[in-house]
Write a structure and sequence with these properties.
Layout lengths: L3 H10 L12 H8 L8 E4 L5 H8 L5 E5 L2 H10 L8 E3 L9 E7 L9 H14 E12 L16 H8 L3 E8 L11 E8 L16 H20 L3 H4 L4 H9 L2 H15 L1
Helix pairs in contact: 7-9, 7-10
The structure holds S-adenosylmethionine (SAM).
Length: 270
């Protein structure tokens, strides 16, 4: 089986590039035209002949990077745009790329990836990991069902399915049928704007964060009494002349018992 790089390079060699519309697409042009920060870091993965990048470059955007697994479209782009920064032409597998961007543009890239669930999850995760704080993923996703044919690109999907992958990682600002698609894609694509969800600091999810073992124990004893505690966590210091101090001393040096007490506390506050 050929690699993805070979597959796509062969498609360019054979001139089998039916996805290429030859100009910047109307929904993306409309989106670009309202952007004011011309220095924002923009990535176009699976960019192909990258008409969107040519447009942005001509509009004075200074920080646009295009990435593709095949060198053919990148070389073609370079010849067409000789003053485009060389370091912004990235020949690489998207899933191996590292970087930070304020905006990532999607167009007929998602639909070219073999539609296994794992690949689609990987796509969403990788997009999020490449975005800065407040970064946005913007673009077009095809809105038609998947066929069973593993070779039948473009691979489709639905609003519900895409949301499934994207909503754990992104806030959905807009995601609906595109109103201004090019005629051949009218009614067949969704336009979306997603902002990266900020991951909560780990501690914020920890119900024990900021609570001392002493407080935990005092609250548990006040709520349940020593007898109940003894039934739930079988340790001597709960059974024989129990006190907060002696129990604390034991729990601090006995991790398994401390864990049981903490779990009891978590259950008690749910
Ligand atoms: C269907 S074409 C779309 C090209 C372009 N976005 C457009 O709208 O014309 C898919 C592009 O993604 C590239 N591609 C596929 N898998 C890739 C990967 N894992 N990493 C980077 N590029 C990839 C292909 O080489 C191809 O240029």
């Amino acid at each position: 089986m050929s690699s993805d790089k070979d597959y796509w390079t062969q498609r360019y060699k054979d001139d089998l590039t039916g996805w290429d519309i030859g100009v910047v697409s109307t929904p993306l042009k409309t989106y670009f035209d309202q952007l004011t920060d011309k220095n924002m870091r923009i990535l176009i993965p699976g960019a192909g002949n990258a008409h969107e990048a040519t447009y942005l470059h001509k509009q004075g955007f200074t920080n646009v990077s295009i990435l593709d697994i095949s060198p053919i479209p990148l070389n073609k782009f370079k010849n067409k745009n000789p003053d485009f920064a060389e370091e912004h032409l990235i020949e690489k597998d998207f899933f191996k790329h590292k970087g930070t961007y304020d905006l990532i543009i999607e167009q007929t890239f998602f639909c070219s990836i073999v539609p296994q669930r794992m690949n689609r999850v990987k796509y969403a995760t990788k997009m999020a990991s490449l975005l800065s704080h407040n970064g946005k993923l913007v673009g077009l996703w095809f809105d038609f069902p998947l066929t069973d044919d593993p070779e039948k690109r473009p691979f489709g999907g639905s609003l519900k399915e895409y949301k499934n992958y994207l909503s754990p990682l992104f806030n959905i600002l807009t995601f609906e049928k595109s109103y201004n698609s090019i005629p051949q894609r009218e009614g067949k694509e969704l336009f979306g704007i997603f902002s990266k969800k900020e991951s909560k600091p780990k501690q914020a999810n920890n119900p024990l964060h900021g609570i001392t073992l002493k407080t935990i124990l005092e609250e548990l004893v006040a709520k349940y009494g020593w007898e109940y505690m003894d039934q739930k966590v079988r340790i001597n210091c709960f059974a024989v002349n129990p006190t907060i101090n002696s129990s604390l001393k034991f729990l601090r040096k006995t991790p398994w018992a401390r864990e049981k007490v903490e779990q009891l506390y978590i259950r008690s506050i749910k």
